[in-house]
């Protein structure tokens, strides 16, 4: 499929994320929203009041009976993703699936298998990987600025759970887990993108306010030989938005990745960077975003995420954030929970 | 007219260079006295308005500050992060009820009457109706403050701009008219605002938008934003002037001043840096007539 016209897209699931994607698809010059799907058809007026006037259908079948989307954005609760993918892939449509991919590794792999068999372009919504500063860190590592990468320390904290919570998001069978599956997975995706397939996990999780994992510590070993520790909690005071940090040590230097900057310490000059400390700030990176849908959460990453998906749909090549990479993330999530449950290391094949 | 404006918002809702900096700053600026002291420092530097997203500590600090200083507050409502948190903890009804219960009895009656007249919109989950209902309740809780301008939280503004939902802005204008105050916009997308609102954009002046010499957070790009600013500079106030702390405050302010913008927003880092260095940013207005 090539597109000389705007990519016709539908959004399945008109909750908070569905609406954000609907708005982005409205403002992005190369896309057109042709429909929403939600079983709560009472949302029609709510969507219209936000300027989202595309028709709302009660199910995927009704969408395809009335319209011919070329791509669908699946933003329903996580436990429904596999079912919705099956329904959508009755036709050849590209898939964008909000994170996490599924509630289990088995479902995630089934989704990847279906998308691969259908030969469609696919991507997952790990939006933080699209922040320019994260992509700059990836490029530095890919260019070998640190030399051989050895180990890392990472954190992902947010103030979310300090007592009982409501809704599907806080029920393990519907959302796939707690902080690991739903918050730290952003960072797990980035780690997988940086360091490759996961090989071994030793982890513990704790419940504080919910019946799920509210905090976790995981020792991760990647096939590349990189090892590191992830500390995560959504019961940490002081952070209304996800606060993440990643320190990576290599033979030739250290890279510290934060929300808006990279601190780089090199033992010798490399790739145009001086020895010693230097800083790369987000403001030093090229600007390529036309609209900021959410200044405080995600920022321009949402627009860049859509741009990368649309370009992939146009070229037919999978983006870096494809379901292949999302399955690697799901393997990490699965192994963290398995290790925590068994109290033993988990080898990932 | 020209302004230097101090921005205060819950420290938990900001980004920091490190977890350590976050904890230190959050702990500090959860103390009303620290916020009050920041306001005094900003005043000494030349700030003559305070743009605020509220929590209890900020409200308490600004009430105390306004007892000493005749400085207007520009309120940004609703506090979307707090509202979304309450939504997951309490549900929509519970989150709304929690805000309602904080009101005084007269404010409860007024809110109740407005709610009755907006029942249709509430049933339809209309964005404009819902936003202004929650905003009204937050505003009622600010009754001890002198609020002269009202802005919608950027999380609402950008969604409304993306959808071209002008009713949200009409509702904001109606609320400010009823309250006898002025409306404004805080946005990262001023070009979209101009496209959506057309000639009505002026009604929401000042529009607070990123403006710095690096083009940081200026969407879609610096050139187009500056072209818009130059078309009517008095309508705009510069935010993000230091481009995330990478530009020196005085040079950053000079850039916005050179474009003729009607003011600039100072964040706590700029205030602390300026105060430590014994600077005064007050020269902002020297080429621009009197301060408000």
Within the largest sheet of chain A, what's the order of strands?
Answer: 14-13-12-11-7-10-9-8-15
- Poorly predicted segments of chain A: none
Number of helical segments with 4 or more residues of chain B: 13
Q: Report the largest inter-chain contact.
A: A-B, 51 and 51 residues
Straight-line distance between termini of chain B: 7 Å
Global shape of chain A: globular
Category by helix and strand content of chain B: alpha/beta
Multimerization state? heterodimer
The spatial strand order of the largest sheet of chain B comes to 1-2-3-4-5-6-7-8
Mean pLDDT of chain A: 95
Count of DSSP helices of chain A? 10
Radius of gyration of chain A: 20 Å
H-E string of chain A: EHEHEHEHEHEHEHHEEEEEEEHHE
> Roughly how many Å is the radius of gyration of chain B?
19 Å
* β-strand amount of chain A: 25-35%
What is the 3D form of chain B? Answer: globular
Quickly list its features.
heterodimer, A: 349 residues, alpha/beta, nine-stranded mixed β-sheet, six-stranded parallel β-sheet, 10 helices, globular, B: 292 residues, 13 helices, 8 strands, disordered C terminus
Description:
The complex is a heterodimer of chains A (349) and B (292). In chain A, 33% of the residues lie in helices and 25% in strands. By secondary structure, chain A is of the alpha/beta class. Chain A has a 9-stranded mixed beta sheet, covered by helices on one side. In chain A, strands 3-2-1-4-5-6 form a 6-stranded parallel beta sheet, with helices on both faces. In chain A, helix 4 (81-88) packs parallel to helix 5 (105-118) and helix 5 runs antiparallel to helix 10. The longest helix of chain A is centred in the C-terminal third of the chain and has 20 residues, at 323-342. Chain A starts with 6 loop residues before the first strand and ends with a strand. With 292 residues, chain B is of the alpha/beta class. Helices cover 52% and strands 13% of the residues of chain B. Chain B contains 13 helices and 8 strands. Chain B has helices at 19-28, 32-45, 56-68, 80-101, 105-117, 119-123, 127-140, 154-163, 166-179, 190-197, 222-231, 249-258, 268-276; strands spanning 3-8, 49-53, 73-77, 147-152, 182-186, 207-210, 236-239, 263-266. Chain B has an 8-stranded parallel beta barrel, surrounded by 6 helices. In chain B, strand 5, helix 10 and strand 6 form a beta-alpha-beta unit. In chain B, helix 2 packs across helix 13 and helix 5 (105-117) packs antiparallel against helix 7. At the A-B interface, helix 1 and helix 2 of A face helix 1, helix 4, helix 7 and helix 8 of B.
């Amino acid at each position: 499929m090539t597109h000389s016209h705007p990519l016709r897209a539908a959004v399945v699931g008109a909750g908070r994320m569905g609406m954000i994607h609907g708005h982005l698809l409205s403002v992005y010059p190369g896309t057109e929203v042709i429909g929403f799907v939600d079983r709560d058809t009472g949302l029609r007026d709510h969507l219209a009041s936000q300027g989202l006037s595309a028709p709302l259908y009660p199910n995927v079948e009704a969408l395809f009976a009335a319209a011919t989307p070329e791509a669908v954005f699946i933003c329903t609760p996580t436990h429904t993703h596999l079912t919705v993918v099956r329904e959508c892939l009755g036709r050849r449509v590209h898939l964008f699936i909000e994170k996490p991919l599924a509630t289990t590794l088995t479902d995630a792999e089934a989704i990847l298998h279906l998308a691969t068999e259908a030969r469609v372009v696919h991507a997952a919504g790990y939006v933080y990987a699209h922040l320019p500063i994260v992509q700059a860190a990836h490029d530095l590592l890919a260019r070998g600025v640190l030399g051989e990468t050895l180990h890392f320390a990472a954190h992902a904290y947010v103030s979310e759970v300090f007592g009982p919570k409501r809704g599907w998001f806080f029920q393990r069978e519907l959302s796939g887990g707690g902080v690991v599956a739903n918050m730290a997975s952003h960072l797990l995706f980035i780690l997988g993108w940086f360091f490759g397939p996961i090989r071994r996990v030793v982890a513990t999780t704790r419940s504080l306010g919910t019946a799920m994992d509210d905090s976790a510590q995981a020792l991760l070993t990647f096939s590349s030989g990189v090892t590191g520790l992830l500390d995560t909690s959504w019961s940490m005071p002081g952070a209304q938005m996800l606060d993440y940090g990643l320190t990576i040590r290599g033979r030739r230097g250290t890279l510290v990745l934060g929300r808006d900057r990279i601190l780089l310490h090199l033992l010798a000059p490399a790739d145009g960077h001086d020895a010693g400390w230097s800083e790369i700030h987000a403001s030093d990176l090229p600007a390529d975003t036309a609209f900021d849908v959410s200044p405080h959460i995600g920022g321009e990453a949402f627009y860049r995420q859509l741009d990368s998906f649309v370009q992939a749909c146009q070229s037919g090549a999978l983006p870096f954030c494809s379901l292949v990479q999302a399955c690697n993330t799901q393997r990490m999530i699965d192994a963290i929970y398995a290790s925590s449950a068994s109290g033993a290391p988990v080898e990932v094949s | 007219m020209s302004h230097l404006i101090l921005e205060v918002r819950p420290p938990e809702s900001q980004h920091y260079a490190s977890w350590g900096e976050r904890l230190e700053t959050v702990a500090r600026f959860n103390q009303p006295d620290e916020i009050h002291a920041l306001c005094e420092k900003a005043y000494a530097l030349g700030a003559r308005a305070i743009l605020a997203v509220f929590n209890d500590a900020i409200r308490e600090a600004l009430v105390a500050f306004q007892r000493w200083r005749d400085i207007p507050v520009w309120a940004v409502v609703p506090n979307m992060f707090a509202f979304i948190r309450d939504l997951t903890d309490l549900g929509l009804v519970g989150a709304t009820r929690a805000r309602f219960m904080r009101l005084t009895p007269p404010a409860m009656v007024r809110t109740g009457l407005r709610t009755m007249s907006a029942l249709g919109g509430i049933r339809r989950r209309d964005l404009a109706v819902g936003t202004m209902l929650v905003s009204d309740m937050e505003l009622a809780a600010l009754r001890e403050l002198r609020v002269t301008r009202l802005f919608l939280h950027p999380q609402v503004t950008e969604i409304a701009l993306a959808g071209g939902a002008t009713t949200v802005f009409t509702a904001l204008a109606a609320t400010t008219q009823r309250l006898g105050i002025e409306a404004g916009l805080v946005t990262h997308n001023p070009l979209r605002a101009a496209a959506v609102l057309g000639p009505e954009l002026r009604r929401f002046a000042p529009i607070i938008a990123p403006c710095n010499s690096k083009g940081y957070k200026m969407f879609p790009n610096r050139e187009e934003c500056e072209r818009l600013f130059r078309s009517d500079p008095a309508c705009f106030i510069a935010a993000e002037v230091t481009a995330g702390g990478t530009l020196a405050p005085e040079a950053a302010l000079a850039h916005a001043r050179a474009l003729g913008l009607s003011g600039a927003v100072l964040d706590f880092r700029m205030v602390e840096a300026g105060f430590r260095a014994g600077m005064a940013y007050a020269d902002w207005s020297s080429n621009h007539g009197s301060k408000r």
